[in-house]
Amino acid sequence: MGSDGQNWYLGLTYDQWVPLSVSGPTPAARYKHAAVTVDGKLYIIGGSRNGRYLSDIQVFDLKCLTWSTIKLNSGVLPATSGHNMILWENKLLFLAGHSKDVSDTVTVRFIDLQSYECGVIETFGKLPVARGGQSVTFFGSKLIMFGGEDQHRRLLNDISVLDLETMTWSTVETTQTSPAPRFDHTAALHADRYLLILGGCSHSIFFNDLHVLDLETMEWSQPQLQGDLVSPRAGHAGVTIGDNWYIVGGGDNKSGVPETLMLNMSKLVVSVLATVKGRDPLASEGLSVSSASLDGENFLVAFGGYNGKYNNEVYVMRPKPRDVLHPKILQSPAAEAAAAASVRAAYALTKPEKVRLIRERRYQF
């Protein structure tokens, strides 16, 4: 796909992955890197290749279709794989992951996008054990970390919360059945209330289950998905746009997953959006997918991954806008309450005989 002027993306067919032809040098192929898009630019940090951890910071300009490398003005970013990256104010926060940097607890680093300075953020409270392959999800001014694998290959299924305003970690006690310990899963936040965990693996099992944590009651449930089948997978990538959670790639050590799925988080219905051929970079483990807004329209941007070879291509998809069915402006308070009740019912525990009073108490964490 060439760049016909600056608005190459406006002619893309909906719901199809397109490889971008890039001008200039490209970064080393890799997997288990971290990615985030900011102002039409895709930032890629670290990852691994042939057993070696990487520490470079690469930026892909989605308007000009060119890569560049960021050189830090101060501080050092250790070579890391299996970490997470979150945009917070004008900084990229960089959490956890496996590296040769020996620390018993999760380290939080930052890169200032204006000064290109980098450093460690001092955190307080109950610091979680160091790990890689965890998920980190933004929730208000907090980050919620779930699962992963520690330095001794012990699998985790704990929940830790980092309050970004006080930089204090806390652990959260949950009720009902937690997901089995796992790593290389993906997570999403729905309706500012529900944390969804999908797939991942232990050392012997690849999962295709969905678990939901109600962040008000701290109660786990395992609702049934409708629609297309979700095959077991780990190392997949996910990103949300509105009510829809787009899940790309992953694999089970034998083969990559060729389908790009869309999970409607309100209805818990899965549909296959696109299918690629077996050895396509999009059927990889350890790839990344981000969403970028270009001229007010959302696009999915995928990079990297491993499926027998390491990849460094950039792919984009223009997802068909799907949230037009219920414009927010027209909803009366009664309709909103009914919609919220239907979401709660869909996410409720599948135990009809157990009637519980609605608790007014809200959990602080």
From TrEMBL:
Keywords (A to Z) from UniProt: Kelch repeat, Repeat
Transmembrane region(s): none
DNA-binding keyword on record: no
InterPro entries found in the cross-reference section: Kelch-typ_b-propeller (IPR015915), Kelch_1 (IPR006652)
UniProt xrefs under Pfam families: Kelch_1, Kelch_KLHDC2_KLHL20_DRC7
Keyword Repeat: yes
Descriptive protein name: Acyl-CoA binding protein
The species this protein was found in: Solanum tuberosum (Potato)
Organism phylogeny: Eukaryota, Viridiplantae, Streptophyta, Embryophyta, Tracheophyta
Gene name of the encoded protein: LOC102591176
